[in-house]
Amino acid sequence: MKRLLCILALVPALLWGRAPLRVVSHTVGTDDLLLAVADPGQIAALSHLARNPKFSVHAKDNQRIPVIRDSEAESILRYKPDLVLITNYSRPEVVELLRRSKINLMLFDRFESLEDAYANLRRLGQTLGHPDRAETIIRRTQGRVNELQQRLAGVKPRRVMSAAIYPFVAGSDTSFNDICLHAGAINVAAQAGIKGHQPLPTEQVLRWNPEVLVGPKDEEKDLPSILRQTPPYKYLPAMKYGNLVLIPGALLASTTHTRVDAYEWLARALHPERFR
Question: Fewest CB within 10 angstroms: 99, 139, 192, 214, which?
Fold first, then answer.
């Protein structure tokens, strides 16, 4: 299936002599890409989470844009798309149904770094006939990253760890680690050799002893209260002294160029003296 998806990712460039006119996005990440480079008239529908601020950084602006009812193939097909944007975490059975319907699919399967985000913007911009828009966004993002690095030059990195209500920790090869690398922080899980998202190793966390915990800000859940009652977090000095940085969940989980906002958010929290 993975090899098939890689082939399908090439379909737009191979088959079309024109830019697609009706594009449906299947995930929040591909929503961000589509919104960045498409003409409004090229957007047939965004993902079913596009208007939910818990998941989308553009939720407020997306209220007037059509969204699919759910993540099922039937919800996508009703918009009669000539291109559907999918990811390697789109459900295989949905992708298979779309393929059988002879819908052109474009696969995005790398999200860990900002370079991945740039590559995704360029691919979609080229396919939609707007490569200049992709390059403009990339230059603007690079400018913000460069300015942030100048502000943080010479700072002593803070030792941080991801924290959430779910018992997993983010190591290397994750968007969280990418945020840390750009915000004057050391991800203690990555430093300890953890790769990807792994079950929380309770005893190791106590040895790591991060200075700061970083978690998603959620209006419906009081994460600080939850962590104060949950091992191993409740035993950490960082939790005891309130060293917890909350970043909007949609921003913290961003897989696109919008993650630069998370870089700046965390950097300001860890090194406020550089922003006065």
Answer: 139
Q: Are 12 and 81 in contact (CB under 8 A)?
A: no
CATH of the domain at 51: 3.40.50.1980
Cα 247–chain centre separation: 13
- Which of 140, 168, 187 is the endpoint of a domain? 140
Residue 77, token pair as written in the block: 């097909």
Say if residue 9's pLDDT is above 60: no
Rounded distance between C-alpha atoms, residue 151 and residue 148, angstroms: 5
Tell me the pTM.
Answer: 0.88
Mean pLDDT over residues 24-43, rounded?
Answer: 97
Residue 194: alpha-carbon gap to chain centroid: 20
174/82 same-domain check: no
Q: Are residues 229 and 119 in the same domain?
A: no
Q: Residue 167: give the domain boundaries.
A: 154-275
Beta bridge partners of 159: 186
DSSP conformation letters of 166-203: SSEEE-BSSHHHHHHHHTTEEEHHHHTT-BSEEE--HH
Span 192-232, pLDDT tens digits: 999 999 999 989 999 999 999 999 998 788 999 999 999 99
